[in-house]
Amino acid sequence: MNFEWLGRQSDNIVFLLGWHVLLAVTPLILGLLIALPLGWWAHRSRRIYPLLVGVAGLLYTVPSLALFVLLPLVLGTKILDPLNIVAALTIYTVALLVRVVADALDSVPEDTVQAAKAMGYRGYQSLVKVELPVGVPVISAGLRVAAVSNVSLVSVAALLGIPQLGSLFTQGFQLRFFTPIIAGIILCVVLAMILDGLIILLNRWLTPWTPKVVAS
Amino acid sequence: MIKFENVTKAYPDGTVAVDGLNLEAPTGKLTILVGPSGCGKTTSLRMINRLIEPTSGTIYLDDQPTSGMDAALLRRRIGYVIQHAGLFPHRTIIDNVATMPVLLGESRQKARMKALELMERVGLPASFAKRYPWQLSGGQQQRVGVARALASDPAFMLMDEPFSAVDPVVRAQLQEEFLRLQREIGKTIIMVTHDIDEALKLGDQVAVMRVGGKLAQMATPSELLTSPADEFVADFVGRDRGYRSLGFTNSAGTVTVSEEAVVTIGASAAEAQSKATGAWVLVVDGGRKPLGWAQADLIKGELKREHLNLSGTSASSSGTMRQLLDAALSSPSRRGVVVNEHGELIGTVTATDVVKAIEAEPHLETAR
């Protein structure tokens, strides 16, 4: 490890880290927002469920690099536009979370849903006030997977020259110099752990009602 | 009043769950729908608050047809209790109970105050207010379910097997408390159960339904026992209906109660033997409350608690023939213990005394 190099490059590394966070977290939030209605739809209709979950699974198998290259053709963006990365990772997040949201809503006890309806909750009130809150633990478990996956997928964008921590890898390989590679790996792992921890905390804050013996 | 007029529920595959049901649940009374599984009792109940829409026919709530109402607004007028309580796992007990008032637009603070009152009413300590449903036992959850249904003070209540998911001891306790509560609040209630004993115990009137969704008989519990409409009802009510109908016959003043000599704990073997009739002597505490029977010739030295046989039940002097007869039959001395309303001994009766009193009655009079 060349700490002197790290010291000199610290401004640049912070800049790359900032982009990495932005490119990983924005799709996470967008993906969740899109997956909520889609997952609700899959939950409501037994015929739609296999279709949506199937398509989502297929999307997830498309290699990320291929998606990064293909998206500009579809979106009409420039190949170096960070928007491509955001769009691609949003697709992956949606692919992961559609099933998660559907399963979260399925996990709400039938008695509870029936009681809400029988007490006079309208459909949307029951969804917002009962079903989604009760489904939070399942959704946050899925969100944790998506967050970690996004952090690692963002690095691939380095091959297109979009700045983020992956750029440290390409730089290291070109210079045959290990310091940036190790720094990049450590920062990626730390970032993934921090995001994961934040989701765990958020989940705890949203679900004070879960039995304490179950670790989330 | 809740009224069914020619209500039918048929499914597209041809199954008829409820077939031309006509039924009236009078205001302030507890009407029970009972029958074997597949008789359409739960379907009938759920058609009242339109969780299931009838295929044809009309259901009236106080003479207004429910079909024209907004379903959500209709449901907010009706309390609903289900088998496993169906509490909201993410809300505290107090907020579960406050659900309906909040939904109806009351402030959270006011709704919570009302909820606290109701919790006390159904026998839940205020310390439970901040707990979550998973921290409560099944019986406690069911109490919360009842409190939640009552929170908006609805005129009507629907109960779907409310006491069937708890153990028999808790069930009996919940049933007793619920009867007491209903005597205070006088709601118009329709309750579904598959348990005929529960129906006979709780119902002001009982509607027996048969498979295929038809009403077999609608009658008071004692009428069902003494004059079942047909073989199906007779069979469903059960083989020991003669004995059970005694549960609706008041015994007060008709059975001769004999005096019984008693001893207290610590009595000498000689005293016990002199007081015993046959082999057994009745043991009471200082306040003449019966403790149990002791076999006099087995006592060595003085009478101790371990000499007590506790198998006998005791009957209240104002109780039913069934309680009296059971007290006599369950007693090891074959003499049934009769107590007053404070639980103090009056005397004993034999099964023969009770049967004589039953035979002397022209008809089985109803206690209700």
Automatic annotation (TrEMBL), chain A:
GO terms for cellular component: plasma membrane. Keywords: Membrane, Transmembrane, Transmembrane helix, Transport. It is found in: Cell membrane; Membrane. Pfam families: BPD_transp_1. The keyword Transmembrane helix applies. It is a multi-pass membrane protein. Residues 17-199 form the ABC transmembrane type-1 domain. GO terms for biological process: glycine betaine transport; transmembrane transport. The chain crosses the membrane at residues 12-36, 48-71, 83-102, 141-165, 177-202. PROSITE patterns: ABC_TM1. CDD domains: TM_PBP2. Belongs to the binding-protein-dependent transport system permease family. This is Osmoprotectant transport system permease protein. It comes from Arthrobacter bambusae.
